[in-house]
Amino acid sequence: MKFPQVHTLRQIATILDCDFSGPEDFPVHGMNEIHVVESGDIVFVDHPKYYDKALNSAATVILINKQVKCPEGKALLLSDDPFRDFNKLTNYFRPFEKAAGLIAPSASIGKNTIIQPNVFIGNNVTIGENCVIHPNVIIYDHTVIGNNVTIHAGTVLGADAFYYKNRPEGFDKLISGGRVVIEDHVDLGALCTIDRGVTGSTLIKEGSKLDNQVHVGHDTVIGKKCLIASQTGIAGCVIIEDEVTIWGQVGMTSDITIGAGAVILAQSGISKSLPGNTTYFGCPAEEARKKYRELASIRKIPDIIEKLNERDAG
Fold first, then answer.
1. 307 in helix, strand or coil?
2. Same domain, 44 and 122
3. Domain count within the chain
4. pLDDT in tens, 78-136
5. Which residues are designated catalytic?
6. Dihedral sign (CA 59, 179, 88, 167)
């Protein structure tokens, strides 16, 4: 998430009421999570296990809970609770805006786009031309939708990321300030849920088609011309490359990549990244033919045991 204008390190430290290490006029352009940071961004880290990853990332400002040696060309924001202060920045630069009606005055809707009854369109939403938005679709603030997009009834774009920190008093939510971006010629079935990014964008690229009841987690990127069947659940921060086919009731964990041209058969469970141009099946998913051979071998076990028992009895 980029700020409306460049801020200085001192200005950001003043917002957070925290100390800093670095030139007070050090430029700060925005804030992002570790997997999408760019030069000029703030990233937060609150566990020693991840200090090096944050300090050596593309981020140039590190919101951290310990004074450490800062890499050259970077700066530190010193906080007793970086998670809390990252939320404070999200609330400051992208505060919640109450809706003023079913279609916000700040929404932009392109030529020949059809909006059916009971659709909610939030603040600063952009919808392109020749789209069809069916009844009871909910489009949260800052969502961007391209041209020739069809969204079927009951789909929700832009709900918050499912992202919590476990504290002694309960779960503390990481506030979502990102977006959902839907490119041209995408079809979304009924009752899909596409969560927005925490600070970046959840992205569905041109020509992809999602069946009914598909869930896409925060900051996930779905490539061009993908087909995703019903009841698939995709966790946050997943990268699905172009022309991937995913059949029904597939579930996948976060922070993995599915290579271009992969096919994932129904009811598979994906726990790690998978190379492209291969068909997968099972839980955990493996190359389909290998998995089928394993299943065929397992079915033979009762016969093998019976023959062994007969031999021992004889």
1. helix
2. no
3. 2
4. 999 999 999 999 999 999 999 999 999 999 999 999 999 999 999 999 999 999 999 99
5. 218
6. negative
Q: How far is the C-alpha of 94 from the C-alpha of 192, rounded, in Å?
A: 25
One-letter amino acid identity for 241? E
Q: Are residues 287 and 166 in the same domain?
A: yes
Closest CA to 165 of 66, 32, 47, 56: 47
Last residue of a domain, one of 59, 93, 127: 93
Q: What is the pLDDT of residues 181-222, one digit of tens each?
A: 999 999 999 999 999 999 999 999 999 999 999 999 999 999
Assign residue 214 the CATH number of its domain.
2.160.10.10
Q: Which residues contact 152 (CB under 8 A, 6 or more apart)?
A: 134, 137, 187, 188, 189, 190, 191, 192, 212
Say which amino acid occupies 22. Answer: G
Core vs surface per residue 176-188: b (16+ CB within 10 A) or e = bbbbbbbbbbbbb
Whether residues 224 and 125 fall in one domain: yes
Q: The whole model's pTM is what? A: 0.93
Radius of gyration of the chain (CA): 24
Q: How many helices (H) and strands (E) does the chain have?
A: 5, 34
155 and 30 share a domain?
Answer: no
Q: Is residue 259 helix, strand or coil?
A: coil
Domain, as residue range, for 16: 2-93
Residue 17 vs residues 14, 62, 68, 88, 212: alpha-carbon distances, Å: 5, 15, 19, 11, 46
Helix crossing, 288-299 with 301-313: angle to 10°?
Answer: 30
